[in-house]
Known about the structure:
mainly alpha, 3-stranded antiparallel beta sheet, 67% helix, globular
Amino acid sequence: PMCFCWVSLCFFGYRGFVAGADHILECLKFGLAPHRGLQFVGRNQDLTVAGLLDILKITKQSLARVLKDLIDQGYVFQKEGAEDRRQRLLHLTPEGEALRARLIAPQIARFEAACKATGLAAEQFGQVFVSLIDADNQPLSLSLIKGNHG
Length: 150
């Protein structure tokens, strides 16, 4: 039987998983945080800035830079909340949706290939990742994963 070092496998698997998106982001002079921002704003329209801050677990200052870049380059827009005008609700522009689709396409293909290569159904493969989420974070995390679309 093969002996796995799970930490190293996760590292190299993740590196492979993000490689396609990283190349696209590098060409746009973006890092990983904008990719994450696009992903969660795209899946959760009307996500508040505070909500995105909570998901990404980055400083307010870092998020402000990320949002400024995404807004300035036309990928994200924000609007006031209907009930609370102080709230800033985030949305992807059509260009943001297109970029998000370009970023996740190689990742989806990599997961589909991994499922095919291992013989695991996507649901089984996904359950491994769900089980890696801290139990107290699973309900919120799963609701964010389901999102509004995409």
